[in-house]
Write a structure and sequence with these properties.
Length: about 210
Amino acid sequence: MYARSTTVQAQPESIDAGVAYFRDEVMPALQEIDGFVGCSMIVDRETGTCIVTANYSSPETRAASAEKVMPLRDRAAAVLNASSVEVDEWEIAGMHRDHRAGDGSCVRTTWLRLDPADLDRMVDVWKHRVLPALEELDGFCSASFMVNRESGRAVGTASFDNREALEASRSPVEVIRRGAVKEARAEVVEVLEHELALAHLDEPEMV
């Protein structure tokens, strides 16, 4: 599967309006696009950072969706009073759901940079080292790993039942992360924590 993520730097006071727009306008429109298989919106209400990710069955269906989603993105930027919008495209290398995330769920995203030649090694480390360790943590809901093979960028996500579980996972996840990036020769660019504002996720298991 393949994904397109849109990172919006919004005004914090516009987050609620942006979530409502995504729920009422964007999600229904995405569901009408051929090859669409799921989407999510995560937000940081303090910094105003919002990340919307839409998943597609193939690179062709993702490419075909570009023209249709452009006006939705432009309108979302206006609703959120965005100061910047960044669009990235990914291959979904792994996905696992222990159980569906409910109200109050939170997400940690870990952004990585590495030599494109080492991406398969990083995917293998995520599947066989990182994911089993995450599954042992209290409150773990799901995880995914996405890569861009041209740029050598990657992002791993892990969702938890609530803010308390997310915070309790920080120390053990730091240990997991240090071992994984060392083994895969990766560099951690940024680690972010968000509220899972909305999700429509029907993607199959990919591990």
